[in-house]
Amino acid sequence: MAELFAHLADWFHDVFVKQFDGWILLGFVAQTCFSMRFMVQWIASEKAKRSVVPVAFWFFSLIGGALLLVYAIQRQDPVFIAGQGMGLFIYIRNLWLIANEKKAITKTD
């Protein structure tokens, strides 16, 4: 059992400590921004007592997704690049639709 823990400790050190650099830091910042969108959505839904997707969800998605795309490009990970790249179009489109809806409401007032 001690040997298992030693291997696990070595692996943890290699993955999380030994290779730590500015890119890893950017990756963690990006992932934090990307994850915050779920906190924002959850809090808004709890307050409304129904499922709500606030505008901040899409902004956190865009910022976190863009930073994760930069990280994925630097890491040369084609799966991560494709996933984050496609997501950016969805986030931008949703923000565009929200802006158009607000313009339409402003024009009718």
Automatic annotation (TrEMBL):
Residue ranges constituting the Lipid A biosynthesis N-terminal domain according to the UniProt record: 26-97
Gene3D superfamilies: 1.20.1280.290
Domain of life of the source: Bacteria
Database matches in Pfam families: LAB_N (PF07578)
MF-aspect GO terms: lipid-A-disaccharide synthase activity
Transmembrane segments: 20-40, 52-73, 79-99
GO BP terms in the entry: lipid A biosynthetic process
The entry's keywords: Membrane, Transmembrane, Transmembrane helix
InterPro entries xref list: Lipid_A_biosynth_N (IPR011499), UCP028440_lipidA_biosyn (IPR014546)
GO CC terms, sorted: membrane
Official protein name in the record: Lipid A biosynthesis N-terminal domain-containing protein
Source organism (scientific name): Phyllobacterium phragmitis
